[in-house]
Amino acid sequence: MTYNVNDFDSVDVVNSDRDHVWHHLAHHKPFEKTGPMVIVKGEGMRVWDAKGNEYLDAVSGAVWTVNVGYGRTEIADAVRDQLVTMNYFAQTAGNIPAAQFSKKLIEKMPGMNRVYFSNSGSEANEKAFKIVRQIAHKKYNGKKTKILYRERDYHGTTIATLSASGQHERRHQYGPFVPDFVEVPHCCEYRAQEGADMSQYGVWAANQIEKVILQEGPETIGALCLEPITAGGGVIEASTGYWPRVAEICKQYDILLHIDEVVCGLGRTGTWFGYQHYGVQPDIVTMAKGVASGYAAISCTVTTEAVFEMFKEEDDAKMGYFRDISTFGGCTAGPAAALVNMEIIENENLLENAAVQGEYLRESLKGLMSKHEIIGDVRGKGLLVGIELVKDRTTKEPVAESVVIAIAGHCMENGVIIGRTNRSFKELNNTICLAPALISTQQDMDRVVTAIDNAIAETVSKM
């Protein structure tokens, strides 16, 4: 397929963007010379920029969102039809797509029962934090307000969610932060802490959480917030034994388990939700990116009925109900898109495809390790894959972030968009991150692997 760049004035669009748009996560000084990249069309796994260049997108919209691929007319049509019929009313009242999507979503989440709508992953996690804090006041006389979060995990861009960020460069210059957020150690076996029990690292890593709980006082801790697989922090899956022990600890100390599925949810790892690989039952689950594959803004904070019941009050004067609102949580486009998104995942067997193509991708990348000593580790689950790059495999000294930037740049120049840990840590911004759409084919995976292979070879030759 070719894209006709004459459908618009590309120079005018690029100039307007450069002069007026404030981009996310971007240094703007270089745009004065080169102009920003402007994406104008997407179809399947591919996108086109304003200059007519075609790219294979291996990160689903750069931030791991477009799970079912670009150009899905059935989602766009559903959104259009819904908006013409009823576009918006605050979630103080109900609407048809929200009710229908909630029912369908809960069918995929045994043990969960209530869906609170908002419009971003950060906001979904904010709602969860507010739920935990309000429970602390309603049930524990203002105690149990502390929320634990894990080193290397990430939960959003707001001040409260940054307070729960285990990626310290993302926090830089944004303090002071909200009190009563407490960090627990990471669970990356490849970067195991000194003195760790490597014979059962997963259990050992979970027990480090218990140590923090005992230091802080179990009576002060309301929730533990974890990603099922650390995503932007380096694509880290916990080792065997970790999750059962985490669940056991939470139950023992009456701590709510909040699992942040903003990245992993809706099929990314080969199951509907990442936590479902590990046999644990959360109290709160948050999700956003893949819920509607980017076709509309939507996020969900999902709770058990037991959590929901804590907010029922006979007497309104007690102000015990959840006094929260998300303006665009009342937009019907999100759940309308999400319904069709789920149908596509089901009808096209995309959970199975994510598992199969993800395994193929990881094995193909592991095959590059014999060629490139710079590859220290390949890890992930489903179509969430990380490649950690090191100067030396024995010492595991990480490469500089500039090396990963160069590799990503080489891939871009050759028509493949990949991701990376981006200004998150002082020394560990050394992981290539891949999250291609669930519709990926083996041919797509081969092209990604070839691009990375060539980019590493070229970059290393210049080091």
From TrEMBL:
Recorded GO MF terms: transaminase activity
PROSITE patterns in alphabetical order: AA_TRANSFER_CLASS_3
Cofactor: pyridoxal 5'-phosphate
InterPro entries given in the database record: Aminotrans_3 (IPR005814), Aminotrans_3_PPA_site (IPR049704), PyrdxlP-dep_Trfase (IPR015424), PyrdxlP-dep_Trfase_major (IPR015421), PyrdxlP-dep_Trfase_small (IPR015422)
Assigned keywords, A-Z: Aminotransferase, Pyridoxal phosphate, Transferase
Pfam family of the protein (one): Aminotran_3
PANTHER family from the UniProt entry: AMINOTRANSFERASE (PTHR43094), AMINOTRANSFERASE CLASS-III (PTHR43094:SF1)
UniProt record similarity statement: Belongs to the class-III pyridoxal-phosphate-dependent aminotransferase family.
Protein name (record): Aminotransferase class III-fold pyridoxal phosphate-dependent enzyme
Originating species: Marinomonas sargassi
Lineage: Bacteria, Pseudomonadati, Pseudomonadota, Gammaproteobacteria, Oceanospirillales
